[in-house]
Structure to design on (528 residues):
């Protein structure tokens, strides 16, 4: 899994999702095409709504504690994710390095999914 | 030592890395590979004593280790073990060498995997020493002055990361090769420097680490004959190591290059280093290790300190900073300029460097400045800088050396 992180207020890192009727190609399309051509399988993925839309949930005893906002108030937020299938870490590193968020100055965390076999 | 023990010790030096590397390729199981290789050497100790040393000790050890791995996989009931067993049986025992079919030596794969950038630098160094050089966890822990348990955890974590993150066991493809090769060279040179000028503790040198670094450097240069930087690194390490006997005096105190007894330099190592460097340079793809080796060769080939071609060294440092722009390189260049053109020229360069602030915590900046003031007989300025250097020097022998100089200029 690729977890995209960066400053969500920076428009080049977290672009506004395309409006309906917008003819322009989404910025991740060239990336997706390149990955497909390399044999990296894109399982799923999405940009996320800004962290102002986040809700944090935890249990405390019998009580469910709900809070507004992300679990960590940091300068960088989780912006989106992609689940990809590739042969090894080098391929995943390449996919991460070519991702639009990484190219725009964001950070991509590469995490293997548990028991992906 | 009996004949058999000597043969096992020699085989350990020659074959350990090769056997571990091939077992990792066969089983993808690093712990199993290490343990079975260990077992094979233990078996060799008793078997070779009673039956004599086999004609091909390496083949004997590889087969023994492989059979041991098969035994253990068969006894284990897990699915993963069954898959590994099938893999071991289907893999040829001795793949062709790199040159014959483009199949790389297993040790080269192992080196690239151990030095993968997704591992921490400490983990890369420790894994390389454990799997390729065959040092025990205790030995590595001692070399890096950490408790054995800490080192064991570091190694385990690294092996888990390789497995879980899917770090490939291979020589990287062409588009990654230059960058990854640089990474491998950096690990070997770090290992060498850790041995050559220990970063902590009372000992100034730890020859066991320099020896391992040279051995691994020799291996890498042999496995990558088309990579002049690998040869350049080996040349550099040999040329530096050649001076090691002269670096400390009878009391364990640091002797400056200028004052070293050059007759105790290892001429054979210098000759080998120079020959390797020339071979690398003929490929006409210069790089930072070749340039540094060329600098070391300038020193190595000067029979007396006064014969040193400082103008050439200053030029080479100018080349080096194109590859590695670093204030430390600039400082060395300033020293060379001072030697070639006079202390004032060097001091002017050092003033520029000090103004940049990048070397604020580096003891060699004030130490160098002190030395140049001393040459100009500006004693007070020299003393003030020796004092500043003393505060920053990392090891005891370096502090001793500076204190000695300080008392000379204060006297």
């Amino acid at each position: 899994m690729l977890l995209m992180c960066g400053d969500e207020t920076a428009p080049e890192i977290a672009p506004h999702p395309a409006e309906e009727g917008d003819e322009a190609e989404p910025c991740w399309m060239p990336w997706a095409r390149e990955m497909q051509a390399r044999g990296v399988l894109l399982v799923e993925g999405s940009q996320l709504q800004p962290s102002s839309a986040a809700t944090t949930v935890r249990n405390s005893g019998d009580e469910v504690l709900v809070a507004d906002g992300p679990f960590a108030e940091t300068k960088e937020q989780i912006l989106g994710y992609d689940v990809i299938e590739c042969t090894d870490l080098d391929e995943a590193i390449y996919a991460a390095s070519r991702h639009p968020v990484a190219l725009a100055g964001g950070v991509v965390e590469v995490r293997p999914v548990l028991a992906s076999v | 030592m009996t004949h058999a023990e000597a043969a096992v010790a020699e085989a350990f030096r020659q074959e350990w890395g090769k056997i571990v590397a091939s077992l990792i390729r066969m089983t993808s199981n690093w712990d199993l590979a290490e343990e079975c290789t260990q077992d094979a050497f233990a078996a060799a100790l008793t078997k070779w004593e009673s039956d004599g040393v086999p004609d091909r000790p390496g083949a004997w050890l590889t087969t023994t280790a492989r059979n041991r791995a098969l035994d253990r996989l068969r006894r284990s009931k897990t699915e993963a073990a069954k898959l590994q067993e099938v893999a071991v049986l289907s893999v040829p025992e001795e793949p062709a060498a790199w040159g014959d079919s483009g199949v790389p030596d297993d040790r080269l794969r192992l080196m690239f995997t151990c030095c993968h950038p997704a591992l921490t630098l400490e983990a890369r160094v420790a894994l390389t020493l454990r799997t390729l050089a065959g040092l025990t966890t205790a030995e590595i822990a001692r070399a890096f002055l950490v408790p054995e348990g800490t080192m064991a955890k570091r190694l385990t974590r690294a092996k888990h990361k390789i497995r879980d993150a899917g770090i490939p066991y291979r020589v990287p493809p062409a588009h990654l090769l230059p960058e990854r090769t640089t990474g491998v060279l950096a690990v070997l040179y770090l290992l060498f420097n850790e041995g050559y000028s220990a970063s902590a503790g009372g000992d100034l040198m730890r020859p066991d680490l320099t020896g391992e670094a040279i051995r691994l450097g020799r291996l890498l240069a042999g496995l990558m004959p088309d990579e002049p930087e690998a040869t350049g690194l080996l040349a550099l390490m040999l040329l530096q190591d050649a001076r090691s006997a002269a670096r400390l005096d009878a009391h364990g105190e640091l002797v400056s290059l200028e004052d070293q007894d050059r007759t105790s330099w290892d001429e054979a190592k210098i000759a080998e280093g120079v020959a390797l460097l020339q071979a690398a340079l003929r490929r006409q793809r210069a790089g930072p290790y070749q340039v540094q080796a060329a600098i070391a060769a300038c020193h190595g080939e000067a029979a007396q300190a006064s014969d040193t071609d400082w103008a050439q060294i200053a030029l080479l440092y100018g080349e080096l900073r194109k590859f590695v722009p670093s204030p430390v390189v600039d400082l060395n260049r300033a020293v060379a300029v001072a030697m070639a053109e006079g202390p004032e020229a060097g001091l002017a360069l050092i003033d520029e460097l000090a103004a940049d602030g990048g070397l604020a915590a580096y003891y060699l900046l004030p130490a160098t400045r002190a030395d140049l003031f001393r040459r100009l007989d500006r004693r007070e300025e020299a003393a003030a800088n020796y004092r500043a250097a003393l505060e920053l020097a990392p090891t005891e022998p370096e502090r001793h050396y500076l204190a000695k100089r300080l008392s000379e200029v204060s006297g």
In short: The longest strand of chain A covers residues 77-85. Residues 29-38 of chain A form the longest helix (10 residues). Residues 2-12+26-110 of chain A form a domain with the Alpha-Beta Plaits fold (CATH 3.30.70.1060).
